[in-house]
Design goal:
- 36% of the residues lie in helices and 33% in strands.
- The two termini are 78 Å apart.
- It is α+β, with helices and mostly antiparallel strands and 422 residues long.
- The chain has three domains: 48-71 and 274-421, Efflux pump adaptor protein, beta barrel domain (Elongation Factor Tu (Ef-tu), domain 3); 76-101 and 238-270, OB fold (Dihydrolipoamide Acetyltransferase, E2P), CATH 2.40.50; 110-232.
- It has a six-stranded antiparallel beta barrel with strand order 3-12-15-14-13-16.
- The chain contains three helices and 21 strands.
Length: 422
C-alpha cells in the first residue's frame, strides 16, 4: 500500500523551519555579546578648532594677572566748615585747578553780620581808649601842675624861714614869727612829698587803666580775627594743584543754591601726578600675592614697572583689590584709565610645564587628551597639575616632555576616551 507523498514533504519543511528558528534563537545571544564587546566609534574633531600645546621642561615664571584702573594715590576732600548756602560754583568736575583758585563761594549772613558787628566794636573800643587816654593825661597834667605849685610854695617858704631865722639871730625878728615861717615851710615840704607820690601813683593808674582798655581791644580783635577767618572759609579754594573730580558726593551732587551742613563734602580734588594701579585679582589666585612683589602695568600706551603696596583683606564678587605703586610714567596716564596688570609671584628654575588648560585649577587632578605619535587620534589620560601661572601650569604626573595635549574645553567629549583629529 503506497504512503501519500504530500504529507512527507510537509513534515520535512516543518522540521527545517524548526531547525532554522532554533539556530536563530541560539545565535541572538552570541551576536549581542559580540556587539557589546565592540568599542564605540571615536568621534571626529576638527584640528583647527582645538588648542594643542607641547609639554616642555625648563624655567617657568609664576605670575597672576588682573584688570584694573589707575586711581589717584592722594585725594583732597574739601568739607564745609559751617552751615551755609552755595552762592556760586566756579569750576565743574574734570577741570584742572591751582591751589589758590576759588572753587566755590558759600554764604552765611549771620556770620558776616557778626564779623561786621565785631569790627564796629573794635572801632568803638579804640575810640574809648583814645578818650580815656586824653582824660587821664589831662588829670596827670593837673596833678603835675599842683605838684609844681606846691614845690614853688615850699621853696618860697624855705627862703622865708631862712630869712626869719637870720633876722631873729640879729634881734630884728621875733622868735615866734620865725617859728611860724619854719612851720609853714615844713607843712609845704610834706605837701610836696605827698603831691609827688600822688603824681607817681597817677602815672601807674593811667598805665593800668589804659592796659585794661587795651586788653578789651585785643580781645575784640582776636574775636574779629577768628570770625573773619570763619567768613573767609566760606570762600572755598582748591588748596592744591590738581583736577576737580567731584562736587558734593556721588549720591548728592552739589549745585548752586543748596544748603550744606558742617562737615558736608563740597568737592574732591585729585593730584593726577600721583597715581597707583588697583587690580582685581581672582580670589583663587591672590593667596600667593604678597606686598613688595614686582608687577608691571600695561596702560596700552606703555608698560610701567611697580610693586604691590596693599592687598585688600576682603573679596568682592570673587576678586580681591590689589594696589600697585607705580615706579614710572607713560603717555596718557589719567585717573580711571583701564589697565592690565601682571604680578610676578616667583621664578621656577626647572619644572615640567605646559600651556594652561581651559579647565583645571592648581594642584588638581584632571584628564586631558594626549595625541598619539601619528597625530591622528588622541587618548584621554589622567594628569596631576601643580603650580600655575597666567599662561602656563606645572605638570606633576601623567605627561612627559614632548607630549602633545589638547588644552581646549573638551566637555562635549566627556563620554569618549578617544577622539579622531581631522
Amino acid at each position: 500500500m503506497d504512503v501519500p507523498r504530500g504529507k512527507e514533504v510537509a513534515r520535512r519543511k516543518l522540521i527545517r523551519r524548526i531547525l532554522v528558528i532554533a539556530v536563530v534563537v541560539a545565535a541572538i545571544p552570541l551576536i549581542t555579546w559580540g556587539l557589546s564587546r565592540l568599542k564605540p566609534a571615536a568621534p571626529s574633531v576638527d584640528r583647527a578648532t582645538v588648542w594643542i600645546d607641547t609639554v616642555k621642561r625648563g624655567p617657568m615664571v609664576r605670575d597672576v594677572r588682573g584688570l584694573g584702573t589707575l586711581v589717584v594715590e592722594d585725594y583732597l576732600w574739601l568739607p564745609a566748615a559751617f552751615d551755609s548756602r552755595v552762592e556760586k560754583i566756579n569750576f565743574l568736575p574734570g577741570v584742572k585747578v591751582r591751589a589758590n583758585d576759588v572753587v566755590m563761594i558759600l554764604k552765611n549772613p549771620d556770620m558776616e553780620l557778626a564779623a561786621a558787628d565785631l569790627e564796629w566794636q573794635i572801632k568803638q573800643a579804640e575810640a574809648a581808649y583814645d578818650n580815656l587816654r586824653v582824660q587821664l593825661d589831662t588829670q596827670q597834667l593837673a596833678q603835675r601842675a599842683t605838684t609844681q605849685q606846691v614845690k614853688s610854695d615850699m621853696d618860697q617858704a624855705e627862703l622865708q624861714a631862712d630869712r626869719d631865722t637870720q633876722l631873729t639871730k640879729l634881734g630884728l625878728k621875733s622868735e615866734l614869727d620865725t617859728k611860724l615861717s619854719v612851720a609853714k615851710w615844713q607843712e609845704l615840704k610834706g605837701r610836696y612829698a605827698l603831691s609827688k607820690e600822688q603824681l607817681d601813683i597817677s602815672g601807674q593808674s593811667i598805665k593800668a587803666q589804659l592796659d585794661a582798655q587795651k586788653v578789651q581791644i585785643e580781645k575784640l580783635q582776636a574775636a574779629y580775627k577768628l570770625k573773619k577767618e570763619q567768613v573767609d572759609q566760606l570762600t572755598i579754594r582748591a588748596g592744591v594743584d590738581g583736577t576737580l573730580t567731584q562736587l558734593g558726593t556721588s549720591a548728592t551732587p552739589l549745585e548752586a543754591g543748596m544748603r550744606v551742613a558742617p562737615g558736608a563734602i563740597l568737592a574732591k580734588i585729585a593730584q593726577p601726578n600721583r597715581l597707583k594701579a588697583t587690580l582685581k585679582i581672582p580670589e583663587t589666585q591672590v593667596k600667593d600675592v604678597a606686598i613688595g612683589q614686582v608687577a608691571s602695568i600695561d596702560t596700552r600706551n606703555g608698560i610701567i614697572p611697580g610693586h604691590v603696596s596693599r592687598i585688600d583683606p576682603a573679596a568682592v564678587n570673587g576678586t580681591v583689590d590689589v594696589d600697585v605703586k607705580l615706579e614710572g610714567t607713560a603717555p596718557g596716564m589719567r585717573p580711571d584709565l583701564s589697565v592690565d596688570g601682571t604680578i610676578t609671584i616667583e621664578k621656577l628654575a626647572d619644572v615640567v610645564y605646559v600651556g594652561r588648560p581651559v579647565i583645571g585649577q592648581p594642584d588638581a587632578k584632571i584628564s586631558l587628551f594626549r595625541l598619539d605619535p601619528d597625530n591622528k587620534e588622541a587618548q584621554r589620560v589622567p594628569v596631576k597639575l601643580g603650580r600655575s601661572s597666567v599662561n602656563t601650569i606645572e605638570i606633576v604626573d601623567g605627561l612627559r616632555v614632548g607630549d602633545q595635549v589638547i588644552l581646549s574645553d573638551m566637555s562635549a567629549q566627556d563620554a569618549y576616551n578617544r577622539i579622531r583629529l581631522n
